[in-house]
User: Fold this.
Amino acid sequence: MRSVDPKREYERFDIHQRIQHIMMFTSFIVCSFTGLPIKYAYTGWGQRLAALFGGADTDLKIHLASAAVMLACCVYHLIYLVAIMARKKTRSWATLPSPKDFTDLADNLRFMLGLSKQEPRFDRFSYKEKFDYWAVFWGIFIIGGSGLMMWFPDVAALLAPRWVIDASRAAHSDEAVLAIVVIAFWHFYNVHFSPTFFPMNKLWYNGKISRESMAHEHPAELERIEGSGTKTEAGFKGSMSASDSLELMPGEKISHRS
Amino acid sequence: MTWKKWALGACAALVLLMLSGMTALADTRVNLDELTKKRLAETEAINQACLKCHNQKPETAGRVPGQAPYVDPDHYRQSVHATIACTQCHEDVQPGNKPSVIVGGRELAKKVDKSCQKCHADIAKVYETSSHGKLFQEGKETALCSDCHGSHNIRKTSDPESLVYPLNSVQTCVKCHGYKYEETYEESFHGRAVHLGSLTAATCVSCHGSHGILGPEDPASSVNKANVPETCAQCHLKARPNFSNGTEHAELKPEGPGATTYWTLKFFTWLTIVVVTLLLIHVEMELWRRYQNINKHKG
Assistant:
């Protein structure tokens, strides 16, 4: 068995992913606070919140500027996906839902109910993380699409009849409220309020995950990276599927805390 | 060096012209002031005479029999008509003389309506062509000048106290034009922006017009199907046929033109309820499991 430094850290999010996450959450927060007053325009708090941003017109301008950042983030992410495939000359489907996610969910429910002692062994992305990722993906299509229709009503009117425009306008803020509630209760629990990570998981900032944490959160991935058999450092790169996981170049991206 | 002489001459002429102009202006101003003062004094005398009886604020709302109807003097002084005598609009009344026939309410409003036309003849002409004006000519109940603009409290459109100020105008229209239009307008982006204090977003009059307002069935109406794209193009870049290709003020009901929006809202409401409930159950289960583990370790 190859000995592994237990204090070892792995890079989980590369610099692009971290920048994308920062772009996404900053624009999401600004869009939320400038968008809610528009949805709840008839309430006192909505009107006060809009006044805080300088009134209806400025509130909308900030909302649009922030929306531009969010859309830019999405374009960045899509280019990144294509570029990373081209650069690695391979394709990663690690974020796609797989049958394992459903068995993991069932296993986790059994574990949490106390019916089983075995926790599911998550791979690169757990079903919770995949849910977060695809929720944003779907949300961007709904919110971004309907938002662009409202931003450019002249173009929208050229392409779609009124009932489509009206319905998509309704979908915009409703999907946004769904996103806000999911972020506030689900994502914030998973990365902030969960006793494991409180006050927060620093992954978004430094992109690193400790070996210890990985053994708990992503044991199947860790096993794949480190290999179950005896592997040399040179051999271990070949043992993992480079596409699915961290692009580990020994000495290059692995840092040691000690 | 003749050009120097010319320049000097031109400057001197200019200075003389300015001086004479200023003298003339100063002279007119003095005269205007005198005239204004005289007129204001006359007006004030009439108004004070009227207010002798009409400044008694009743203790309870509404008319008190035997007491002259109350007019708030401050309200009137802040209105655009503050420098006009009461008798300009209440033409049949002279200070100190009671008119032979006293009318109130709608009858009074109709009577005073004619007085508005004396000064606002241009608007009166437009009003005659409007749906409101036509109903008036037919002798039917309709919106008179005072219904939208007020009576003793008429302000400029740009005055936030005005009944036709953008943020107040919708409330003025829906006094007669019902809940449906208020609700569907507030639901629209225009309505939301106006609620948040936007003075540029469209209110009722932006699309429907004001004094020359016409029903959508009239081919000349700004909200007639054929004219809607042009009406939208007042603010939006171009006249798009699809702007009229649907129903404005569509109610959110399971049937009819607002059905798609209604079902979209229902879908997302239930999606939110179901998703958030399931996620919260998941979080609670995880926390419960952790709590159990802590207890186990303690034990």
Summary: Chain B touches chain A through 45 residues (CB under 8 Å). The mean pLDDT of chain B is 87. The longest helix of chain B spans residues 2-54.
